[in-house]
UniProtKB/TrEMBL annotation:
InterPro entries: Homeodomain-like_sf, Transpos_IS630-like. Transmembrane segments: none annotated. It comes from Sphingomonas populi. This is IS630 family transposase.
Length: 223
């Protein structure tokens, strides 16, 4: 059975609601609310009011009740909502950054997002956002090696000095190598793997093991 909610609208309110509907510069939400109340005053079913105004049935019930309680003014005013969470202050952000760069708690190797969020009383997404904005990645570590050779500094000076001030009429080359290069014999490169298709290679494809590439750079002119 269709539900009918009859809203009694006096002539003054009806004229005011009609002017709201006719206002081409008015807010669409105000126009829809006025149309809901005007249609409800015609003893239409809630389903028919919703169909005419393009609103949901809960919306029809809500604005019928709002008009009955507060009149036209209630339709033209949105109820205030409680404020959301306060934004993170700069002091809290600074503390998070300082704590991130400090030693992790206990026996942990680094700060995790969840551990930091629990320690600071904020959400994980807040920690992730602050870390991303400041380019902090506590889970990443770059290793380095320190020589134990007591003559390391003197050797470095000799090598660098040779590069910076080579002997007269001397050719100083910087040599490097790249090993484990596949020595392939083929007339043209194969096509890569694709969804629904396997990779391809020419019929004369052959492997000749691996080879090593050596390169020498003249440090004076870059040749």
């Amino acid at each position: 059975m269709s539900q009918i909610v009859c809203v009694i609208v006096n002539s003054e309110d009806a004229a005011r609601l009609a002017s709201v509907v006719a206002d081409r510069n008015g807010s669409l939400k105000h126009i829809q609310r006025a149309r809901i109340v005007l249609a409800s005053s015609e003893r239409l079913t809630v389903l028919e009011v919703a169909r005419r105004t393009g609103a949901s049935r809960p919306a029809v019930w809500r604005w019928q009740a709002r008009y009955a309680a507060e009149g036209v003014e209630g339709l033209l005013r949105d109820k205030t909502r409680p404020p959301g969470k306060a934004p993170i202050t700069t002091a809290v952000i600074a503390k998070i950054l300082a704590l991130t760069c400090a030693e992790p708690p206990g026996e942990a190797t680094h700060w995790t997002g969840r551990a930091m969020a629990k320690a600071m009383g904020v959400s994980l997404s807040t920690i992730q956002r602050i870390w991303a904005a400041n380019r902090l990645q506590p889970h990443r570590i770059r290793t380095f090696k320190r020589s134990r050779d007591p003559a390391f500094a003197a050797k470095v000076e000799d090598v660098v000095g040779l590069y910076m001030h080579p002997p007269a009429h001397a050719l100083v080359l910087s040599i490097d190598e790249k090993s484990q290069i596949q020595a392939l014999d083929r007339t043209q490169p194969g096509l890569p793997l694709k969804p629904g298709k396997c990779g391809t290679m020419t019929h004369d494809y052959k492997r000749h093991g691996t080879t090593t590439l050596f390169a020498a750079l003249n440090i004076l002119d870059g040749a």
